[in-house]
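Throughout our pipeline, every protein is held as a single compact record rather than as scattered files. Nothing more is needed to write down the fold, since each code stands for a local backbone conformation. For reference, a complete record is included directly beneath this paragraph.
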Amino acid sequence: MAITVHLDEVLKARGMTSKELCATVGITSLLSIPRSGKAKGVRFATLNRICCALECNVGNILQCDGELEAEHEE
């Protein structure tokens, strides 16, 4: 995948669980899909709230490997 998600690592470094992050950010669902790397997208507003809650930058959570992802992966 062209973009990898490092949310688990950031959560661990901050000593926070995904449930705690959800409560802090104010979202009702767990972040299991974005954390798994299988999400098709994430809203900037949500990403902004996550970064503020974790006191980090987007680059700490998301990383691009420089490869173009196929349009229709199976």
